[in-house]
Amino acid sequence: MTDSKYFTTTKKGEIFELKAELNSDKKEKKKEAVKKVIASMTVGKDVSALFPDVVNCMQTDNLELKKLVYLYLMNYAKSQPDMAIMAVNTFVKDCEDPNPLIRALAVRTMGCIRVDKITEYLCEPLRKCLKDEDPYVRKTAAVCVAKLHDINAQLVEDQGFLDTLKDLISDSNPMVTLSEIASLTAGTCLTALNECTDGGGQIFIPGLLANYTPQDDREGPEVSICERVTPRLSHANSAVVLSAVKVLMKFMEMLSKDLDYYGTLLKKLAPPLVTLLSAEPELQYVALRNINLIVQKRPEILKHEMKVFFVKYNDPIYVKLEKLDIMIRLASQANIAQVLAELKEYATEVDVDFVRKAVRAIGRCAIKVEQSAERCVSTLLDLIQTKVNYVVQEAIVVIKDIFRKYPNKYESVIATLCENLDSLDEPEARAAMIWIVGEYAERIDNADELLESFLEGFHDESTQVQLQLLTGIVKLFLKKPTETQELVQQVLSLATQDSDNPDLRDRGYIYWRLLSTDPVAAKEVVLAEKPLISEETDLIEPTLLDELICYIGTLASVYHKPPSAFVEGGRGVVHKSLPPRTASSESAESPETAPAGAPPGEQPDVIPAQGDLLGDLLNLDLGPPVSGPPLTTSSVQMGAVDLLGGGLDSLMGDEPEGIGGTNFVAPPTAAVPASLGAPIGSGLSDLFDLTSGVGTLSGSYVAPKAVWLPAMKAKGLEISGTFTRQVGSISMDLQLTNKALQVMTDFAIQFNRNSFGLAPAAPLQVHAPLSPNQTVEISLPLSTVGSVMKMEPLNNLQVAVKNNIDVFYFSTLYPLHILFVEDGKMDRQMFLATWKDIPNENEAQFQIRDCPLNAEAASSKLQSSNIFTVAKRNVEGQDMLYQSLKLTNGIWVLAELRVQPGNPSCTVRLSLKCRAPEVSQHVYQAYETILKN
Amino acid sequence: MIHSLFLINCSGDIFLEKHWKSVVSQSVCDYFFEAQEKAADVENVPPVISTPHHYLISIYRDKLFFVSVIQTEVPPLFVIEFLHRVADTFQDYFGECSEAAIKDNVVIVYELLEEMLDNGFPLATESNILKELIKPPTILRSVVNSITGSSNVGDTLPTGQLSNIPWRRAGVKYTNNEAYFDVVEEIDAIIDKSGSTVFAEIQGVIDACIKLSGMPDLSLSFMNPRLLDDVSFHPCIRFKRWESERVLSFIPPDGNFRLISYRVSSQNLVAIPVYVKHSISFKENSSCGRFDITIGPKQNMGKTIEGITVTVHMPKVVLNMNLTTTQGSYTFDPVTKVLTWDVGKITPQKLPSLKGLVNLQSGAPKPEENPSLNIQFKIQQLAISGLKVNRLDMYGEKYKPFKGVKYVTKAGKFQEDVGGDFFSIGEYHLTAAHCNSKGRKLQ
User: Fold this and answer.
1) pTM, rounded to two decimals
2) Same domain, yes or no: A745 and A721
């Protein structure tokens, strides 16, 4: 007597038969019939035609029959709402049944009927059930509110159900409370949750902790919240554990690294994560995807746990691949020997995908841990000896990368690689091999033969190989021009005349023209020095990583994509971001602290009215380092005080890269501590733009922007710029243009040591990734407290700019007048004494031609650039101006300017006296530019 | 929120579907079948699959796929845990989790699923509560039902659900009050060629079988609780008490449940109870090789190691094996190339060994891959970590229960890459220990 008998009726008149049975008088027969109906339902058969008949059976005292009918109703109430109306009266009646089980059943099913028309009828019974004496009914009713909310949110609010729900949060019964929280997904308040963790929180409901988010900083000190959450790490349910990990990861962001508690937390996080790896493989997979994020954010948590990620032979392939990924992330000098030994084992496994990834991993280890490179290469060579086709190919692809990373170190293995030339059949491996042959053509005796052998089937190759072959042969030609002329002719004609691929044709033409017009230039282009490849691959972009950390344990963390990227019409996709970090020394260690996006909720008024702000700024001493504007918001309270004090220096000084992708008008969380560097750069210059009409504020002469770094030298990044000095602060105004086809991010800037110790006073702030063809203007504040080294010429400045693509170098000459300080006016007596004191051989004479200014105009023009007129004399129709200026490093320069207004040639004579005569030339140039503009 | 659930058997038939919200067409499973085809092996189907409108989260249990359909962001771990809970419940109710069992009890299955999840949120997943709401089928009951017309559906609400201890039902009564604890430990280790431990950890569980009347409040203390630094608790355990006193204090659920699971990883604490000497060599240009393994006890703390089984995955080119063994019996399956050696007990006086010739496919090159070697064993009356239960106290009830504790150590799998750098003892999922055996009497 099992239920499988219900499946046996597959005759034609089945529905008809069931109908008859359902209307039978015998209770037993009815029940059997309903069971048959349900059995058909479970295999996806449409039995909705029986709806009226089944509903008829509802009026019964038999609990089992009633339950069965309800099972049927729940299934079809959603898809056949019109028919469900027929049952409404029974629902309402059953909601008053003395048996709480029936009341609960009724209220539960009611919620499933998605028809607007009848929702109104449901409100009254629902309200009653929410206040039912039985907690089971209350609990069911609470979930019903959530269902109703999906159908008609407005109705739920109008009927005051939300308030009733909130009352229920303080329900005496924890089970009810938990249902509340499940339905009140938004706007949960921490107090209620605290209750749950005390009382009923040990119950299976992982969704609970997910809501346990620090939405509001006011709730209390982070430490106590962390302490409350920590016990959840020992929960038997892995989803609860991972939610707890998420909460801790979020709060750790707010804890100072110096705290003892921080270290304790770090230690506590590792064991539960490791334990997750002994669960079922499906759980392991999700755990590993999350651990992958955690390891990128805080590698210190699991750095000693490498061994648990070693692959077990019966792991499913999806677990193996994830483990491998994490192993590489954790690889360091300390454990590399073990990792390599493991990887070598994996490379002899059966699964092709896994083996390939293992081989690739060996290459990544070589690139990541320099000390291991030698061992990695020899391991790879061993693997090549196995002659297993796909292992060899994969090994060659990674060896190419190793060559790139460590040029001129491992080329001795090329011979071994060449032996395997014939076995390569995958495009990527072929392309890698061709690259190697072309790159090291001068060391391979028969390079031309090797490349020629590839050339035979040129048209059958994939584009990747064709392009590589073209470049490879051109490289070969440039290195050994005499023997390979024919070969290069052949490949060029193949690429340009016989190919349909525009990329290939274009590249072919470019090479052809380069070679025919300017072989030297061709050499520079084709054999240019290649930028180094980065150590870490596949890293998630820091802002995305921070966002994903907030989504630990969710689908987003499995896909490593923000929910907005894949959740369909999910209600209110909110960008989450890590809470702002306290201003402790840790900011220097991890530059990726920028909060990802705007936090949910409104943006309180962070910015004081512009006028006030300006006033405040001007009252401040604007010499670098500059204090931030008065940021006072509700959420700044924590740590705001020390931010403006010691914290700031460390933020600005130690920060190697941009700290915040934020600007002045950022929402509160973004503007707080991490981004205090920002206002100095962008904000300040914006403010001054507003006031540029005001005379007192106008600074010294600013040269127009010149191109410093052409796009072709910097992989598409064009930098032009100029220097400005305004009210005591020097800045470098940059204009970055992305002329490449890919997005640029992660900008940073550094100066070489220079004559006047110029250094960036704040990190380079590029707020958003720079998309192709986009231009961004940045003002970089400079200080003169950097390290000093005499340059040739004196005002030479060497700059390094980094972005996600590479590091680029350029040098520029800065005009000396940006270094003329505001207090450069010398007392008359002093001037006279100094002028006499400085020996005559230190005097330098210059002529400035074509300067039609009179003495007045010249004097005022120069003054705005901090060259001060100390005295004025008229000698023989000539105006003599005696001027002084002081450089940032304290060097005084005295000048005698002779202006002859009537002189047709408009020549101005300049005599400069200075104890450091080498600056004179540059001071003269500064004079000339100022006077002539 | 779980939208729908499909149960699929190994041949790809959807034999049950359940929708908690609107009905999702079966065609959504096509994406799953696609992934299954790609994965080749049933175990390798990725657990999370995305489709244009849904996400499919699946588990593979007892040759069945449990595929859930998700439409909104939801913690995947919660879904996977839930699916496992569903499978556990089936196992619990029907004795096995198989297609036949589910089809035989389709109405109960449906009732269970409806009770476990409401609107996609978990409602009642504790087996104690479920069993009161929906009575598990027994032969006796089905006979009674068919005669009297009564049903499997409980007509009262489970009382436990209304209390602050939802895992325990009220009014439990036993004539013999008993509480048994089984400490079961599995060793998981990697040992290198020279025999030194590279990696070792112990996965332990304490399974309880509690048959006590009323509302007993138990506290279980250990001789050496310091061993337990990485523990997962059953929700009934009072965490604060553990934190402060290292005592497990709880009101137990009725019947069988897993009290704690723990992991001991510091390597000096993990003793490896057996050692293996092995030599497998293949001669160059010859169609045979030599095979020789000996197994012996090590650090077994005076207890007998029993139930030893060794399995070796031989290379593909191996045709046959001619071996002699001093103890037990061996079989070699020429299709799967798996050598199984059933050793039994180890007596230290005479170490069991297995040696002989390996026949290779003629003309085939010397095998590159190293055969892996797995060992299973069992040690009664010993928890290899040294964990010892000190005492069990009961409060809240007057009667005197019978108390017992039993220790078992098992090896998961010894995976040995013979001739390679490592040999590792991996993990096996072993069935939980039996709770009906009477263990040593406690103080």
Assistant:
1) 0.63
2) yes
